[in-house]
Amino acid sequence: MSRSDHQTTDDISSTSADNPVGLIEEYVINQDWNSERSNEHELWAELPSQWGNQRLWVVYHEETGFLQFNCYLNLKIPARQLPSAAQTITLMNERVWLGHFEIWSEEHVPVFRIVLPLRNTTLHEAQLEDVISAIQEETERFFPAIQWVVWGGKTPEEAIAAAIVETEGEA
């Protein structure tokens, strides 16, 4: 789909009050990320990461006005490692300001999720930038912790401590 096939910024600003997925689609296109609009309320995109591309699924629930961002990490957790991974995610969530991690039960994949209530309001580009930034920062920061537990034989506590030290070292 060419850029000219997409809504213009003027079109998006006039419709984003009713459906913010248009604004998100324009943002994703401007970032030059691969994306696909499943329907008028859903968008799939690939977020680049140092750990491989992450899959982002954005869905707008028109009835409730909730906008949900789901970032699926590029890591499958073996069934035998689910308890340790779940404990790691609990420890990760204690350190997250916005959103939370969970394990998608169907495929045993870690997911970072943020939900914004937008009833009687609109999504602004600055909010969208903050959400995308939080998704990228938290998944970059904690992806290694899950990987260390699943494949590196570390305890959840060791993995979290190492992830925090790595992050502090980058500051």
Could you explain the architecture of this structure?
This protein has 171 residues and is an alpha+beta fold. It has one domain: 2-Layer Sandwich (Yope Regulator, Chain: A). Helices cover 42% and strands 23% of the residues. The protein contains five helices and six strands; from the N terminus they run ααββββαββαα. The chain has helices spanning 9-15, 21-30, 82-93, 125-152, 156-170; strands spanning 35-39, 42-47, 54-61, 66-72, 100-104, 109-117. It has a six-stranded antiparallel sheet with strand order 1-2-3-4-6-5. Helix 3 crosses helix 5. The longest helix is centred in the last third of the chain and has 28 residues, at 125-152. The termini are far apart. 29% of the residues are buried. Mean pLDDT is 88; it is low at 1-16.
